[in-house]
User: Fold this.
Amino acid sequence: MFDLFADMLLQTDMKSKELRFAAQQAISFEFHFTTDDLLPTAIAKPSPKVQVTGTLIVSRHTSSYSIQSTALPALWLLTNELCTRLQCRWYDRGGVKISYKEPLPLSDYFASVDDHHATRVALRIAESILNDASHQFRTIEKRLLIRFKDGRPVQINHLSLLMRQTHHNLQRLASIIQHAQLERRRSASILACSTNLLVSLMHFHFGLSAKKIANISSHMNPDVVSLNLAAREVGLAGWEEVADMSMAFLLKNNIMRRASKSTPIKPAVQAATLAFPSTTDTLKKRIAIICHKLDPVK
Assistant:
């Protein structure tokens, strides 16, 4: 354990012998995130940064590693760093085979999928309400301009008051949309870490080759943040739409084809429209089916 992370552990003030003895079985790391990366903005702490601990435990008898953390992004970062260092260490000695024997954490992954979908739904609703309020504000402006140009204008009555209230409502809705965009960015970061972690665990759990896991990763599209760069949510082909279509294609033309080699399946060429899903049940079901089909034991 000490040799794997020697470049990081030697930066401490402890002596080399004491540090080597302390790092034989467990090492803890401290990650610094912003609260927007980990918690919903409504319950986030006022502090702009939060410290998260990730612990790496090694077993002497079974040569297995256990990774624990209080936040999923830190869990993915620590897992990826451990695997990279193990592969670099044993590269000149025939390589190393990493395996994962525990069940895949699909329930935790699906929770991050639902969270990301919920933030997108909230943003779409806020944008729709803002669009209606903007239309009302423009209508009031047109009526005031007509009365301003009229030689004998009628009384405005409460139209000016309605305009001021609509303007205040627009400002309030703009703040709500800004908050919803931060929530979408937070959930996208967590979903990206969750997808990368799940793909890596699928690689180690099923013993897939680098080519096969690269194919699955390209269909699951871990780069969730890049799909949320548009300023508006409406009209955006987000991660759920792309991943759902990709999972359907992967399941029909790759997974099922290997399951029934005697009856080859012709790939569908017809175009399909990426519509925003009302729920993520279909996407989660397809991901679960793919994991089930990849399991050689079942």
About this structure: The beta strands are 26-34, 49-58, 65-69. The chain has two domains: 6-93, 106-294. The first strand starts at residue 26 and ends at 34.
